[in-house]
Prior knowledge:
This is Immunity protein 35 domain-containing protein. By secondary structure, the protein is an alpha+beta fold. The protein has 3 helices and 6 strands.
Amino acid sequence: xxTREDAIKIADEYLKSKSEKSKYEFVLLTDxxxxxxxxxxxxxxxxxxxxTGDEMHLLGGNGPIVVNKFDGSxxxxxxxxxxxxxxxxxxxxxxxxx
Length: 98
């Protein structure tokens, strides 16, 4: 089992890697981390938007990510519905509950 701090490092490394392939610099919103039974949900935003507040730099469609509490794997959530819906789908997909 991994710790919250490990999960933050995993999510941060994932976003750094994603940033290298993008014109944006993705930043974790550490004050918005949500824990649930099987992991943590991480939200992120474009660094330039966070620095300036200019909506031109606001990301859209950047669904949160889950870091699995047991193996550190990453799962991307969608944006069309509330995170709870995707968490239930994640739990089913991972076979964590019947």
